[in-house]
Amino acid sequence: MNTKKCKYCQEEIAKKAKRCPKCGGKFGLPTIVKILIIIVIIFGVIIGCASSCSNAIDEASNSYKDTNGKTTFKINESFQNSYEKITMTEVNTNFTDYSKYLGPADGNKIIMAKFEVENINKDDDSLYVSSLEFDAYYDGVAAESFWSAGDNYKDLSATLGYGKKAIGYVFYEVPINAKSITIEYNPNFWVDGNKIEFIIQ
């Protein structure tokens, strides 16, 4: 049978006709259905992109985390991710090698920590490290940085090529009776969840 009925006027017309020759009615998907199909396709593309972007962000974020999954480190323990290796090599919880005119306030003391940072990323010849990226806390309270140590103590700031190291010191002023002292470092500026801690006491 090579004919069909027009759904608009019920006249017999050719089966392959895309338009009724009698009433002019068009056959095929209604416009609203076509619009819905386009919306579904666009929505699917958006979901797919969001999922792949989310996976890429998660993968990038994970590359900043410690390779062994650790978040706290003691003296001579190394934090290492895909880009850098950081080791706290020395700690002094009662540092006194400063000018007597620029010492800590009454009831406070100075703590010192020495760090070694190495660029281990073969694809990046410009790892930047700064003492400003390290924040100290005593008993959960932010400590003030101390900048009046002697000339023998190099600041921890440098731009490192692959395989190169920086060695330097950070200093903070804390109460004498502080019970817990830590130094925080965030290897990924954009993600707070990647912070690690170096235990001073």
Give the secondary structure arrangement, pairings included:
Layout: E1 3-5, E2 12-14, H1 31-62, E3 72-73, E4 78-80, E5 84-95, E6 108-119, E7 127-129, E8 134-138, E9 141-142, E10 144-145, E11 158-160, E12 165-175, E13 181-185, E14 196-199
Parallel strand pairs: 3-14
Antiparallel strand pairs: 1-2, 4-5, 5-6, 6-12, 7-11, 8-9, 8-13, 10-12, 13-14
Would you tell me the structural class of the helices and strands? alpha+beta
The parts where pLDDT drops under 50 for at least 5 residues are: none
Question: Helices and strands, in N-to-C order?
Answer: EEHEEEEEEEEEEEE
**Contiguous helical run count:** 1
Apparent shape: rod-shaped
CATH architecture of the largest domain: Sandwich
What do we call the CATH topology of the largest domain?
Immunoglobulin-like
Largest beta sheet: strand ordering = 3-14-13-8-9
Rounded Rg: 33 Å
Query: Mean of the pLDDT scores?
Result: 86
Highest-level CATH class of the largest domain: Mainly Beta
Percent of residues in helices comes to: 10-25%
Main beta sheet strand tally, sense and closure = 5 strands, mixed
The overall number of domains is 2
Tally the beta strands: 14
- Ends distance: 92 Å
How much of the sequence lies in strands comes to 25-35%
